[in-house]
Amino acid sequence: MAIFLSKIISRQSIAFKLLVYFVSSGTILFGLLLIMFLSVSERYAQITIESNMYGLTEQMAASLYIDNSGSIKLDDSEMVMKWGFDALFSNLGYRLIEIDTQNIALLSAPRDTQGAIFNNVSLDIPQKYYNIPNSNTSVYRTEIIIADKHYYFDVARSDLLAQLANEAVEPSIVDVATTVIFMTFIVFLSVSVIAIKLIVKPSSLLTQQIKHIKPEDLHKRIDVENIPSELLPIANAMNDALDRVEGSFEQQKRFIADAAHELRTPLTILLNRLELKTPSSTIKNELVNDIQFISRIVEQLLDLSRAQNMNIAQVSTFKLSYVVKNVCSHIAPIAIDKNHDLELVVENENSTVDVDEGELTVIVKNLLENAIKHTSAGGKIKVTVSNKLITVEDSGNGIPEVFHQQIFERFWRENQSDRKGSGLGLAITKELVSHYNASIRVSNDSTFGGAKFAVEFYQ
User: Fold this and answer.
1) Which of 280, 306, 332 is where one domain is finished?
2) Is residue 141 part of a domain?
3) What is the mean pLDDT of residues 395-410?
4) SS3 of residue 97 by DSSP
5) Is the model's pTM score more than 0.70?
6) Residue 387 falls within a domain, yes or no?
7) DSSP result, 339-401
8) What is the pLDDT of residue 386?
9) Is residue 320 located within the same domain as residue 450?
């Protein structure tokens, strides 16, 4: 969740824009719902009274009857029990009006008496529910037939009950509704965050796939099987780009290999002619050194080409100590010539690895040559062989940590004007190490104060 939140903080991220959209739209939507409910809740008691009066009017109308004298009466025996009729006479009344004559056939309380609710109610009112203007009285009118005569039956009620209902019921309803809407809004936000996370996750997975494709892994492609359709064009475009890059890189490798092959023979002829037919002089020595430097670069380009195109099918089991001893015996004269103290320590004589002997030889040789090149005269170099691990350390100046990744790049040198090397040795070494389940590391924790390289096999 912390990683997800850190992603949506960026104002330029799609997740942030979606979150703003969801929060804004949700706030407006639920705000409108709350406002609408509050406005409706103000009429809740009125709606309740209207429905209540409809039921009361229908029930009272059904209680009308004609007695033995031919007069219309209202049987209020059940009304007292259900509606508290005797207690409601001060705010509840009824009347029966003959439609043809507009005569009042029945009235709950005589006119002009205290509590006569119909004193201010006109005979000419609409049917159904009606609220008397400028009055606290509501009336419900229905049409009934008694003894083949048509009547209006009116039931009037004081709005005091509506006010009491508003005061008693409305606050509770508003509180409950507000809480429900607020909780729903929280759920909406939670679902929004989850939805955004579901949107961001596939793009994050796609990014991770892209990050795992290193320069040396140009043959890899993005797996589009589980990619959402919205991101599929990006993944396909990335795979197409990798196809083109890999094709260009293959052309580059072929060009380097072809150029190195073509240059090696003329350089060898030029060096032989210079050494055999040119008199000794300072210029001759400088030209010989220059040609040897160029020849060394050509040889390393060929080594790099072979490393990149090597088929590791011819792998055999070798003792690390056997290969390292052979390399040290060949390199020792160069170390002695530069007055270096070269030490070989074998901690595990029987440690074996499954490698190509030629590739392992080049790995160790390049590390030793690198140590000799960067160690001053009279310095110390130590090679240690332990369980599936080779370390080469020296007493040079070490390598600044900021360059620990760059030193394995092709043609990289801290000082580009330095003619001591071509910048290919460590690149070739890393390329060869990548052929196996192994790693190469560099640090400045040499026992002599210089750099320390470690090649470890995980077999």
Assistant:
1) 306
2) yes
3) 84
4) strand
5) no
6) yes
7) T-EEEEEES-TT-EEEE-HHHHHHHHHHHHHHHHHTS-TT-EEEEEEETTEEEEEESS----G
8) 93
9) yes
